[in-house]
Amino acid sequence: MATTEFLGMEKLIVCVHKRQNALCRLICFPWAGGGTSLLAQWGKRLSNSIEVFCVRYPGRETRLNEPFAKDMTSMVNEVTSVLLKELQEKPFAFFGHSFGAYLSFAVALHLKEKYGLEPVHLFVSGAHAPNSEAILPIKSISVSDAKDEEVFEYLQTVGGTPSVLLHNEDVRKNLLLTFKEDFRVFQTFSFEKAEMDIPFSCDITCFNGGDDKPYDLQGWQELTSGDTSFYELPGGHFYLLEPSNEIFLTKHITRCIENAGL
Question: Where in this chain does the record put each Thioesterase domain (predicted)?
């Protein structure tokens, strides 16, 4: 059993800086088509009291030979089953960007409903509130009908992948496939807030790039009895790749977690 658990962790989680004495873990969820390279490195930037885990989605990196996830529920179940012992062991916070923001929310909701566990803080970036109607048009886009050139143009526009890599045919094909599959998973995400139900009590912080498309963020305030904060940083959808923004994010996240009274 222990071996199975270890293999599950090895497969799903990247932890560059192991900190066994950390008071809290920050679990990071990357964007659609993304890997663990950037967010896993946050382990070096956050204080010694925080250990950073980055989730590795199926179909990429060391999981390249695995099939992509079929839907959001299967991803939520995988993350929960692999991480449950760690999440019960010490306090945790979540950070998710774009697709990762929706997945982190879905995992947090599942943990709260099934196990009574809740993050000490939820950090979301580049995403609508999950209870926003702005999500509906995105869910109705037909990915299978979209031409590769259109998807590629979109990926070039939003950024996030160095242009030198995009000129490599294999990299481009792999990125297109991975993005499309992750986008299909996103389209299976659904959340309907019950009238009087406030699922969380933790603080929620929303980040986004000032030049990115506007997001409907107000709905986040209805999802917690804790505080909700909003920060707009210079840059587009991938503002968090800018070194100065990365410094701000990691410092701010450290401060929020350390102030959570662990």
Answer: 25-245
Sheet containing strand 203-209, strands side by side: 13-14, 50-55, 24-29, 92-97, 121-125, 203-209, 228-233
| Counted domains in the chain | 1
The domain that holds 115 is classified in CATH as: 3.40.50.1820
> Is 98 an annotated catalytic residue?
yes
Q: For residues 249 and 255, give the distance between their C-alpha atoms in angstroms, rounded to a whole number.
A: 10
Catalytic residue among 97, 98, 121, 128: 98
Tell me whether strands 13-14 and 50-55 are parallel, antiparallel or unpaired. antiparallel
Given 97, 121, 128, 237, which residue is catalytic?
237
The yes-or-no answer on residue 110 being catalytic is: no
Q: Would you write out the chain's pLDDT as a tens digit for each of its 262 residues?
A: 455 566 789 999 999 999 999 999 999 999 999 999 999 999 999 999 999 999 999 999 999 999 999 999 999 999 999 999 999 999 999 999 999 999 999 999 999 999 999 999 999 999 999 999 999 999 988 887 888 888 888 888 888 787 777 788 888 899 999 999 999 999 999 998 877 789 999 999 999 999 999 999 999 999 999 999 999 999 999 999 999 999 999 999 999 999 987 6
Q: What single-letter amino acid sits at 89?
A: E
229 phi and psi, to 5 degrees? -120, 155
Domain of 174, in residue numbers: 1-260
Long-range contacts from 246-255, C-beta under 8 angstroms, 24+ separation: 246/45, 247/45, 249/207, 250/42, 250/45, 250/46, 252/205, 253/26, 253/46, 253/93, 253/95, 253/121, 253/123, 253/205, 254/46, 254/47, 254/50
